[in-house]
Amino acid sequence: MTVRQQPATANGVIFITMEDETGNVNVIIRPDVLKAQRREVLGTSLLGVYGVWQREGEVRHLVAQRLVDLSGLLGNLSTGSRNFC
């Protein structure tokens, strides 16, 4: 996960930007999924997302239906943030 945002104007929706070797994908987490899986949204280092793909041109969205904490797969890898300043 590279960015997590919850704009005040989004009516409780959280947007997460995830990145892999193919590029970025925007994950949309609606309030009902957030309520049921808040720990996964806020507390994981490696997040798996099951959902429905939406695509408009080159912009891809994944509307989350189920979230999975996959942090255990990281083993002893360092997952801290970096400060580029």
Q: What is the strand tally?
A: 5
**How would you state the average pLDDT, rounded?**
83
**What is the percentage of strand-forming residues?**
35-45%
- Percent helix range: 10-25%
What is the CA-atom radius of gyration, in angstroms? 13 Å
First CA to last CA: what distance? 20 Å
The structure class reads mainly beta
Uncertain stretches:
none
Instruction: Write out the strand line-up for the largest beta sheet, numbering strands in chain order.
Output: 1-2-3-5-4
User: How do the helices and strands follow one another from N- to C-terminus?
Assistant: EEEHHEE
Q: Which sheet architecture does the biggest sheet show?
A: 5 strands, mixed
**Helical segment tally?**
2
Shape by Cα distribution: globular
Short description:
This protein has 85 residues and is mainly β.
Structure, described:
This protein is mainly beta. Helices cover 14% and strands 45% of the residues. It has two helices and five strands. It has helices at 31-36, 38-43; strands spanning 3-5, 14-20, 23-29, 47-56, 59-69. The chain has a five-stranded mixed sheet with strand order 1-2-3-5-4. The longest helix is centred in the middle third of the chain and has 6 residues, at 31-36. The chain is globular, with a radius of gyration of 13 Å. The two termini are 20 Å apart.
List keywords for this structure.
about 80 residues, mainly beta, five-stranded mixed beta sheet, 2 helices, 5 strands, about 15% helix, about 45% strand, globular
Describe how the helices and strands are arranged:
Blueprint: E1 3-5, E2 14-20, E3 23-29, H1 31-36, H2 38-43, E4 47-56, E5 59-69
Parallel strand pairs: 3-5
Antiparallel strand pairs: 1-2, 2-3, 4-5
